């Protein structure tokens, strides 16, 4: 009695990105463009984010504008993400990528922290983030500013989408980073006081907001010191919406009604179906 | 010598009319000048401190001299992400190997670990690395592992985009049998010349001397670099 070998048709799901739909997407994009429409683009956080090390800890700052092409998709989005009680991370680049990446690392770091019975270190978060971003070879568009205070003091890292990191006393990222860096290079000093550091970060983000089209709205700050985190959202509403000085509504009856006609539409019931609601 | 091979590797996930400027879409590269010199009793290594994304300097005080083990360092040039990842991997492998041996590892071992990784992934990586250090068997050694994954031991080696400008200086000024101080002086001059001419190199000059006793690190700030009159 011979046994026939069964061929497995289903292939196990491999990790990483699946590029199977790229050809189909290219065809669709060509057809849509022919009709004169645009393919929806990924929502990006145009962004200015920055961080600074001061005497007792870290100050992180971010603007709050999220853009979809040339439109502002969200006027007050939160770009400073929680990683652990003593570590926070600002994200620039593709909004979904920064959100999910920080959430994944935050989750893994919490498990790691429970396993080691210790408060997580910033270097650990940095290594986890850089190794994940390198694995995805830059396809995850997340540019991050990671800061926190651990048993070895305050630490600040900048992390690029391809997985390289820099450990520095002050960093800026995003489309408004040049404007913010100009402020830092002018006024940064070692061992600043908390109020000076907050003012410096606020001014750096403001420079990004007012000089970069991709950044705007409010300034969020996050001050991390040993044993205390101040999540100041918003710290400064630099772009409050103005109040209209006059009332521009027209009174009822401004437009005169000349004639009124009511036309009854005779509709025929063609098909009647009942769909039960799932109340289980 | 261009240190970039874009070749579609830095995937354009961002469309061109968005608010992300061009320099932010480029991959972070250590433009770079790196070098290493052997002397009797150890090695002297040196590097500039500039990391660029396109035309923007992302980090002007980078440390491209990365410790792999107590007496073994590597100088990194090429893609910042690639070289950091490879250096981290080799540091782990070498540390594990050293514990297994219960002995300090050989410089040649470290260099071969780099070579194996750089050759296997030669199509995916953009990394030019100089491995230098001291071990008990052969004293001070310099091994260069350029892009592609070759390995060769040299008494003097330069690398990175700025190296093109100092081959002449290196060939004419290097003499076998220099002392540690002479090597440090030689490196400082070479780095200063390269940083002056290469746009992708600059900042401060970082130097390190590795001997049996240990490590001695130096930083030469911008205004302290030797000046060569050309006007």
TrEMBL record, chain A:
Give one Pfam hit by family name. Answer: Pr_beta_C
The lineage's top-level taxon is: Eukaryota
UniProt xrefs under PROSITE patterns: PROTEASOME_BETA_1, PROTEASOME_BETA_2
Reaction catalysed by this chain?
Answer: Cleavage of peptide bonds with very broad specificity
Kindly give the InterPro entries that the UniProt entry links to this protein.
Answer: Ntn_hydrolases_N, Pept_T1A_subB, Proteasome_bsu_C, Proteasome_bsu_CS, Proteasome_sua/b, Proteasome_suB-type
GO BP annotation list: proteolysis involved in protein catabolic process
- Output the Gene Ontology terms for molecular function: threonine-type endopeptidase activity
Keyword Calcium part of the UniProt annotation: no
Q: Which residues form the Proteasome beta subunit C-terminal domain?
A: 238-274
> Where found, per UniProt?
Cytoplasm; Nucleus
Does the record carry DNA damage as a key word?
Answer: no
GO CC, sorted alphabetically, is: cytoplasm; nucleus; proteasome core complex
Keyword list (alphabetical) reads: Cytoplasm, Hydrolase, Nucleus, Protease, Proteasome, Threonine protease
Q: What does this protein do?
A: The proteasome is a multicatalytic proteinase complex which is characterized by its ability to cleave peptides with Arg, Phe, Tyr, Leu, and Glu adjacent to the leaving group at neutral or slightly basic pH. The proteasome has an ATP-dependent proteolytic activity. This subunit is involved in antigen processing to generate class I binding peptides. Component of the proteasome, a multicatalytic proteinase complex which is characterized by its ability to cleave peptides with Arg, Phe, Tyr, Leu, and Glu adjacent to the leaving group at neutral or slightly basic pH. The proteasome has an ATP-dependent proteolytic activity.
Q: Which family does it belong to?
A: Belongs to the peptidase T1B family.
Q: What is the protein named?
A: Proteasome subunit beta
| Lineage, uppermost ranks | Eukaryota, Metazoa, Chordata, Craniata, Vertebrata
UniProtKB/TrEMBL annotation, chain B:
Quick one: where is this thing mainly located? Answer: cytoplasm
Name the reaction it catalyses.
Cleavage of peptide bonds with very broad specificity
Q: Where in the cell is it found?
A: Cytoplasm; Nucleus
GO MF terms listed in the record are: threonine-type endopeptidase activity
One CC-aspect GO term: cytoplasm
Question: Is this entry keyworded Cell division?
Answer: no
Q: Which UniProt keywords apply?
A: Cytoplasm, Hydrolase, Immunity, Nucleus, Protease, Proteasome, Threonine protease, Zymogen
Q: Has UniProt tagged this entry with the keyword Hydrolase?
A: yes
Instruction: Quote the CDD domains the UniProt record gives.
Output: proteasome_beta_type_6
Q: Which domain of life is it from?
A: Eukaryota
**A Pfam family it matches:** Proteasome
GO BP terms: namely:
immune system process; proteolysis involved in protein catabolic process
Known PANTHER family for this protein? METALLOPROTEASE TLDD, PROTEASOME SUBUNIT BETA
Complex formation? The 26S proteasome consists of a 20S proteasome core and two 19S regulatory subunits. The 20S proteasome core is composed of 28 subunits that are arranged in four stacked rings, resulting in a barrel-shaped structure. The two end rings are each formed by seven alpha subunits, and the two central rings are each formed by seven beta subunits. The catalytic chamber with the active sites is on the inside of the barrel. Component of the immunoproteasome, where it displaces the equivalent housekeeping subunit PSMB6.
Q: What family is this?
A: Belongs to the peptidase T1B family.
Q: Provide the function of this protein.
A: The proteasome is a multicatalytic proteinase complex which is characterized by its ability to cleave peptides with Arg, Phe, Tyr, Leu, and Glu adjacent to the leaving group at neutral or slightly basic pH. The proteasome has an ATP-dependent proteolytic activity. This subunit is involved in antigen processing to generate class I binding peptides.
Protein name in UniProt: Proteasome subunit beta
**What organism does the UniProt record list as the source?**
Oncorhynchus tshawytscha
